[in-house]
Amino acid sequence: MNRRFLLVLSSFSFAVLFLFLVALFSGQGKISGGSFGLKLLGLRIKQGNNTVPMLHRKLLHGTGMEEPNRIWGEKCTKADIVINQGPTAPLPSGIPTYTVEILNVCVTGCDISGIHLNCGWFSSARLINPKIFKRLRYNDCLVNDGKPLVNGGTLSFQYANTFLYPLSVSRVTCS
After folding, report:
1. Are the CB atoms for 170 and 141 separated by under 8 Å?
2. Fewest CB within 10 angstroms: 17, 67, 139, 169, which?
3. How far separated are the first and last CA of the chain, in Å rounded?
């Protein structure tokens, strides 16, 4: 009798779990603003007025991407540089750390140099190679020592501080 009871109980549990998962990911259980399953897993990011599912990348969240308004003859704009950053494991002392990715997504195949970011009073408890990223003055940080970031290239670094610094592109030079 004990085996029969366990078999019935496990079959019932499996059926309930299966029905829950089907309802969860088929969109039957709706919450305003998106699918119940995606809301439950926290895999939606708000960009402007659009909500975009981010199933492949939960760590880093973009700071918003603006579409370049190209004028004839213009090779690149500051919108061709995308900055993503998000939390990573804290230092042993408990200070939170953040990973920053800076990408060149220029569609015209351009290398972009002289990348300056708005960065406030950026500082880090973890040393950052100044050839990769350094604060020149208040709200002016230089990326890659001013050298070109090749088309499709990515540069990344980590910093440690009690809060995340909002970083945005202030100006670039098209190479």
Report:
1. no
2. 67
3. 79
